[in-house]
Write a structure and sequence with these properties.
It contains 18 helices and 13 strands. It is α/β, with parallel strands linked by helices and 469 residues long. The chain has two domains: 282 residues, Rossmann fold (3-Layer(aba) Sandwich), CATH 3.40.50.1820; 109 residues, no CATH class. The strands form three sheets. A nine-stranded mixed sheet has the order 1-2-3-5-4-6-7-10-11, with helices on both faces. The longest helix is centred in the middle third of the chain and has 17 residues.
């Protein structure tokens, strides 16, 4: 990696004339934006065939904009920058006052040749074996050169976008997996990075599928908060026992549920497997508002009223939305960069005592060989010299503060802010948008972050009427 960085500095790519792009309207933005398509090599080691990378530019509100834009890198892997326009509109309006915001669709996502298949209509009633067989068919039918869809290639695409738009130094905002991509770009092209803002920080040594320990810690926090909340404890006095009983029941066999479809109200049968159950709980823990619905959802399911739980499951992974994750892209990255590091010892340690168990690892073991990607060799990461603002939610189930602390040890000038009542991705919360703007304007000054303690915890949902007022 150090050698690659030296090459990047020694032989910079000649800067072409900036692309003007075209006016475009995308979901999540009321005003017209600017869209740019940049042709990049499919394989940077074998120039020839190219693919198109989409970038969306939200111009600064003020005419006298600063010359250093904020590049936005979405998470997943599998999410596109254009998918998170609503989040950007909410979290980065203060930044956009003086800087262009550039959202990049990583290769294989969104408008950059999304790797995806239309899901079968009967997906809710399919068994795990049928779902995995359908995933294999999708991977094979796309016939993509999955080995070309790596974090390294995506980082080099970012550099081509920077050159195409005519920018000098840029600031990087990365969320979740986007923090891995941002750190990799900063190591490849250090001279081109002014600052980094990393939200939900993935440490360089983090193995994405090994998330059992962090997920269990977030679930335990939710249970304790319910026990300390008088109304929640009164409504759900046996919450832990009910959760354990549900997991044990589904571990024996999936449950077939006859119910009205939460999407359409039409009668249908839904299959609830242990994998779907734990995945839904895990996803709910990402957001503190959703985490505080879990006691109600678990209690309802324990009493065989599965409709609220299935509705939550559908909302988290609704297969009809345009912004759905690019599943094959997720597999392309994880199977090359993470799965090879999943040693039996790591899997056993991570799954011990965690509700997540090993279903995801088992699924990867079945699907990764279908992609036929070569393992990525991880070298010792170089230090990042650019000033960095690291943001964490104390109750994040995937990238908790300990991950940011590990990443900060490889940075020269990192500030780490923790939102006590935050989950996964805290940029839109409370005063965080203002703090991001202050950091970007003066990255060498300490950010006064006392206001983070004023971000309140959401109330618990006790019944079908929704959260308490």
């Amino acid at each position: 990696m150090l050698f690659a960085a030296q090459l990047a500095l020694a032989a910079p790519t000649p800067a072409p004339a900036p692309q003007a792009g075209r006016t475009c309207h995308l979901p999540g933005a009321e005003e017209a934006l600017r869209c740019v398509t940049v042709r990049v090599p499919l394989d940077y080691g074998k120039p020839g065939k190219t693919i198109a990378i989409h970038a969306t530019v939200a111009p600064a509100f003020r005419e006298a904009a600063r010359g250093d834009p904020l590049f936005v890198l979405a998470g997943g892997p599998g999410q596109a920058g254009s998918d998170i326009l609503p989040v950007v509109q909410m979290a980065m309006r203060r930044v956009r006052a003086t800087r262009d915001i550039v959202l990049i669709d990583q290769r294989g996502t969104g408008l950059s040749g999304k790797l995806d298949c239309k899901p079968p209509a009967e997906i809710d009633s399919m068994t795990e074996e049928q779902l995995d067989a359908d995933a294999r068919r999708c991977i094979e039918s796309l016939g993509a050169p999955y080995g070309s869809y790596t974090t390294d290639a995506a980082a080099r695409d970012i550099e081509r976008v920077r050159l195409a738009l005519g920018y000098g130094q840029v600031n990087l905002w990365g969320g979740s997996y986007g923090t891995r991509l941002a750190q990799h770009y900063a190591r490849l092209f250090p001279a081109n990075v002014r600052t980094l803002v990393l939200d939900g920080v993935a440490a360089p040594d983090q193995v994405i599928p090994a998330g059992g320990r962090d997920a269990q810690a977030a679930l335990e926090t939710t249970f304790r908060q319910c026990e300390r909340d008088a109304a929640c404890a009164r409504a759900f006095p046996a919450l832990r026992a009910e959760f354990a009983a549900l997991a044990a029941r589904l571990g024996q066999a999936s449950v077939r549920i006859a119910m009205a479809d939460p999407r359409t109200a039409a009668p249908r049968t839904v299959t609830m497997s242990l994998r779907r159950f734990t995945a839904t709980v895990h996803r709910a823990l990402y957001s503190q508002a959703d985490a505080h619905t879990l006691p109600f959802l678990i209690h309802s399911a324990f009493r065989d009223r599965w409709e609220p739980f299935v509705a939550q499951s559908n909302r988290d992974s609704d297969f009809v939305t345009d912004g759905a994750m690019a599943g094959p892209l997720y597999l392309a990255v994880v199977c090359a960069e993470d799965f090879p590091r999943l040693t039996p010892q790591l899997v056993a340690e991570d799954a011990r005592g965690s509700f997540l168990g090993t279903p995801q690892v088992t699924q990867l073991a079945a699907l990764c060989p279908v992609l036929n990607v070569q393992p990525v060799v991880h070298g010792a990461p170089a230090r990042i010299d650019a000033p960095a603002l690291l943001l964490s939610g104390a109750q994040d189930p995937v990238t908790p503060p300990r991950r940011a602390e590990a990443a900060a040890r490889l940075m020269k000038a990192a500030q780490h802010l923790v939102v006590k009542n935050g989950g996964h991705i805290v940029s839109p919360l409370g005063c965080v948008p203002r703090l991001m703007r202050e950091f970007l304007d003066a990255p060498h000054q300490r950010v006064a972050a006392q206001c983070l303690d004023e971000i309140p915890a959401p109330t618990f949902q006790l019944n079908s009427a929704g959260p308490q007022p």
